[in-house]
Amino acid sequence: xxxxxxxxxxxxxxxxxxxxxxxxxxxxxxxxxxxxxxxxxxxxxxxxxxxxxxxxxxxxxxxxxxxxxxxxxxxxxxxxxxxxxxxxxxxxxxxxxxxxxxxxxxxxxxxxxxxxxxxxxxxxxxxxxxxxxxxxxxxxxxxxxxxxxxxxxxxxxxxxxxxxxxxxxxxxxxxxxxxxxxxxxxxxxxxxxxxxxxxxxxxxxxxxxxxxxxxxxxxxxxxxxxxxxxxxxxxxxxxxxxxxxxxxxxxxxxxxxxxxxxxxxxxxxxxxxxxxxxxxxxxxxxxxxxxxxxxxxxxxxxxxxxxxxxxxxxxxxxxxxxxxxxxxxxxxxxxxxxxxxxxxxxxxxxxxxxxxxxxxxxxxxxxxxxxxxxxxxxxxxxxxxxxxxxxxxxxxxxxxxxxxxxxxxxxxxxxxxxxxxxxxxxxxxxxxxxxxxxxxxxxxxxxxxxxxxxxxxxxxxxxxxxxxxxxxxxxxxxxxxxxxxxxxxxxxxxxxxxxxxxxxxx
Length: 506
Known about the structure:
By secondary structure, this protein is of the alpha/beta class. The protein has 16 helices and 23 strands. It has helices at about 10-30, 40-50, 50-55, 120-130, 145-155, 260-265, 285-290, 300-305, 325-330, 335-345, 360-365, 365-370, 415-420, 440-450, 470-480, 480-485, and strands at about 1-5, 60-70, 75-80, 85-90, 100, 110-115, 135-140, 160-165, 175-180, 185-190, 205-210, 215-220, 225-235, 245, 280, 295, 315, 315-320, 375-380, 385-390, 400-405, 425-430, 455-460. Strands 1-23-22-6-8-7 form a six-stranded parallel beta sheet, sandwiched between helices. It has a four-stranded antiparallel beta sheet with strand order 3-2-4-5. A three-stranded antiparallel beta sheet has the order 19-21-20, with helices on one face. A hairpin with a 5-residue loop joins strand 4 (about 85-90) and strand 5. It is elongated and about 110 Å long.
């Protein structure tokens, strides 16, 4: 649903009224016999029961068996049988009461509102004025999402409304970026020296090819050609170990609208490339320009090609923390990490155990592992070290390490919502949704995640149809992809590397 209206026409009141209407239906569906639940209600209930995180909030455990016909009083009968592996009901962990699947779910309707930051408090005040029975929660960090859904599970209010700002599209404090991840190989080749030092020229004579072109020099005394060693670098895929080929930047078409933003580049798809222009990649800078992928040539992709399916790709990059966080929490290489692991197998990793308790850990490792906490291994000085690693080649050489607290989690609010609680929201209200009228901006992707995380969504704005035609296409494609697919149009047809939208036939 989308609402178009100028300021003061009541877009907020209409969206609150829609949430109240859905909350009323959600509260009444348990008591209305013969009531056919709408699609959004069935999917919301199923999502909450399938997600282990939300099911734990409801304090339910699945009951396997067979559902028998109702008794004379109209009550459902359950015959438990774990061997069937078919869930027919749920049992409350605290009381043991059986709950039918169509009656399970959160007590309050989960509603999410995303709005510009400057009007979040004003939006909350208007909700409290129009619908005082509802409960509102201001989302500041990603872990507030879990608290909000926990309130939905136990609150007596008809709905619990979480209010987020558009600017929370990126993690706060310690964000994430990306960095290249491929196998770097070096090979040494010997070549004739074509430009020797000036003081060596009297002792050398030139070497000519059949066309009398100078190709190198040799010693006048021994006749040996003057050679030099050159190290060549190439890169291989970490999955298929194939040689990575790419088109040099000088042969790439110029792009004036390309932004060097890692968060945006990760969302972009690779464009089709001319295979005849590809050559062996010898520079790391080619991987640092933007995330690259390898279409591995192996059995699984051969089968997918025969079935006319899209080939699976291996990312040649990995997620990493931003530079400021890496400087604050320096990490060690994988080789160093494996050496430390081999040293601290006993006592177990992540749990500091004194020398007196090493024998206990060897006899009963579970006793120690049950109380372990996540830590990070880092280099340190000798006086602060708790781990010493001796080099195999030089036993007198020692490296010192310590276990410290890991860096804090870095999740954006919307990224956390879509990753762990997709489909657990009944209604998402996107206020001033025209801010997401773009192909690949942070806010556009955040609002897209809000819509994907909910069973129903509503856009409210006074300028739905502003901007250029390309932004219009992406904006409404996110709103209802099925409409555009029925017309035979895809997301990629609006990209700049395809025919411009203005030239599409009517």
